[in-house]
């Protein structure tokens, strides 16, 4: 059966454009309110206009880009309330994945999560907030992948980009000791396969992030 190679290539370029533009938004290379002109993006990325527009459409759906046809495309402003809403939704999805999936986990799943939690603690101890939020998002999505609910995972992938915008906002605001306690308690809940205990811990973790956001 012949493969549609042109279509595959176009999708691949769209994904590359998405990843690179999103990364530039997260690290501040592209600041809130900055115009995103097709010609500039084509020159910068070395990718043609069509896949770039696909990537921008996806970023707009996730709230990272604002678009008004025939007028402007720009990086969306940092909306503290919108980010908090995204953190809470991510927490709800994470809790659901823990409640339904954790009783069915295998030993290999514990090891994967344990490695991610170790990275999370390292990022917190170094006050590397960009890495911390990236790893936190990875932890949340890994719970969902282990559960295997693809609908939950798609919903999660749509809100996590907003959550990752927190990275540069949390500098100096992480509490490594509180995070260490959360990690230890979550590991114990995982070992017991206690989904309800994990949900309580996740809810508390999201509440703490919300308290930090309220001080920004």
Largest sheet: 2 strands, antiparallel
Output the number of helix runs. 9
Strand % is under 5%
Strands, total number:
2
Shape: globular
Distance between the termini: 56 Å
Mind sketching the topology for me?
Elements: H1 5-26, H2 38-45, H3 49-61, E1 65-68, E2 72-75, H4 80-101, H5 107-125, H6 129-147, H7 150-164, H8 176-192, H9 195-214
Antiparallel strand pairs: 1-2
Helix pairs in contact: 1-3, 4-6, 4-7, 4-9, 5-6, 5-8, 6-7, 8-9
Short description:
By secondary structure, this protein is mainly alpha-helical. It is 72% helix and 4% strand.
Question: Any overview of this molecule?
Answer:
- By secondary structure, the protein is mostly helical.
- It is 72% helix and 4% strand.
- The longest helix has 22 residues, at 5-26.
- The protein is globular and about 55 Å long.
- The model is unreliable at 1-10 (pLDDT under 50).
């Amino acid at each position: 059966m012949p493969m549609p190679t042109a279509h595959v290539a176009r999708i691949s370029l769209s994904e590359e454009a998405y990843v690179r533009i999103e990364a530039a938004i997260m690290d501040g290379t592209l600041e809130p309110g900055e115009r995103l002109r097709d010609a500039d993006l084509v020159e910068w990325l070395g990718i043609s206009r069509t896949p770039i527009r696909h990537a921008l459409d996806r970023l707009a759906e996730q709230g990272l880009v604002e678009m008004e046809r025939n007028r402007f495309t720009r990086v969306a402003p940092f909306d503290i309330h919108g980010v908090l809403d995204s953190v809470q939704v991510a927490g709800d999805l994470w809790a659901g994945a823990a409640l339904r999936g954790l009783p069915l986990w295998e030993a290999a799943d514990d090891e994967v999560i344990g490695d991610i939690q170790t990275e999370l603690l390292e990022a917190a101890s170094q006050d590397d907030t960009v890495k911390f939020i990236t790893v936190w998002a990875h932890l949340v999505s890994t719970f969902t992948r282990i559960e295997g609910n693809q609908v939950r995972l798609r919903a999660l992938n749509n809100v996590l980009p907003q959550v990752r915008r927190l990275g540069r906002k949390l500098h100096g605001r992480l509490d490594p000791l509180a995070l260490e306690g959360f990690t230890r308690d979550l590991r114990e809940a995982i070992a017991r396969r206690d989904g309800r205990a994990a949900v309580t811990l996740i809810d508390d973790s999201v509440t703490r992030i919300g308290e930090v956001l309220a001080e920004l």
